# Entry
Amino acid sequence: MSQTLLVLNLLSLLSLSSGATSFSQGSRSILRAIDNEKGGPHDYAVDLNATNFDAVLRDTPATYAVVEFFAHWCPACRNYKPQYEKVARLFNGPDAVHPGIILMTRVDCASKINTKLCDKFSIGQYPMLFWGAPSKFVSGGWEPKQEKSEIRVIDDGRTADRLLNWINKQTGSSFGLDDEKFENEHLSSNVSDPAQIARAVYDVEEAMSTAFDIILEHKMIKSETRASLIQFLQLLVAHHPSMRCRKGSAEVLVNFDEMFPSDLLSNSEQEDNGGKGTRGNFQICGKDVPRGYWMFCRGSKNDTRGFSCGLWVLLHSLSVRIEDGESQFAFTAICEFVHNFFICEECRQHFYEMCSSVASPFKKTHEFALWLWSAHNKVNERLVKDEALLGTGDPKFPKMIWPPKQLCPSCHLSNNHGNNGFDWDREEVFRFLAKYYGKMLVSLHEEKNNHGNDRPDGALEDLVVSTNAVVVPLGAALAIAVASCAFGALACYWRSQQKSRKPRRNWN
# Structure
């Protein structure tokens, strides 16, 4: 079967499974990959239409958005496209130089589906560019004589240089067309700004998706690791800070035996398993995750922070969300997950030794949360020496004993050498952990996205569609609602079962 036919079959399956009325960005990226193999241009700007315009701009983590309205038949628009793409490649896609800052998009007004959308923005010439906060475009519009509009026309963007200069003036930045990935001075530190933890919601999704990609790529689901993965999935179903990751984990858990039959777990049999357990069937946090970039966990240079940071944030978040009766189960699930599925051998062994040194079971949430906090500091203490010796650390985010005084002054009793070189008020540390990785991690994210609308806790991620989503038909929406209720019931049932269990004496 030809590559194109395979892709078309895949797109058909995606369309049927999502109720989509147009291709998702993921589908477009597949087609662009084929284009690139044939020598075609690479598109960095995100194509929007009337179907997905509001959803994409509502859910983007970017601070600003640029929307280009054009017509595909317009010669000036075709000539301008390479200029626009030069700027878009800095901000969009998995290889973006400055990710998560500006979402560069385009709308084709020559397409009939977009006629009303283009009319809302009074498009009278092509191309026409607008600038604003992404939320202001949602259900919004623009009028030429409007005095106080939060959406602005970009009046000097005829070339890539001029467009980028205009953007730099608005943001107080010095972005350059020749900027290379991670080599810039615009990276903001998250050490002294607690509000930045809101951005980590995107990173725990990214880390979870990346972890399961690694598990599948390295064929790590075997008879001896199967039970530990199920345990970890159970923990995620109940306590992952992202609702879409909870739903995805529940779906995988419900279908685990079908996706990973116990009699088909050898490497060769996994390869011949008709596609079961592949990325297409194992989208733990939704079809557009991983996005290919980090927000809170972004390093200042290649190969620093990223996945390991996102995974630590996830583990800390789980540790403060569990209830007292679940503390030993969470300890067991996390220790065994790291032991069986984290492929950095030195890190895995170090974590396993710390797990094995625990003499008695945890009975309270704060006991486990503080143990994980102490373990993380021990890891940082080990790595800071290695990185100093080898020069491999991130200069803008050096390893440190955490939390620093800037984030939690009350956590520090003195500078005397105690646990990890400090004397800690452990009760204050736990209060900080519970607030930082619990309430702040999600509530600030919700506040950022709610834009003043009152919604009950947890409703945001039900309503927010992923960055590349399209409108879902009513029948599909009802089916999703029913499935969500089933997953919620499963989580509640599992949690009630865990509360009735006696704590285990050992985790291994």
Remarks:
- The chain has 19 helices and seven strands.
- Residues 196-433 form a domain with the Four Helix Bundle (Hemerythrin (Met), subunit A) fold (CATH 1.20.120.310).
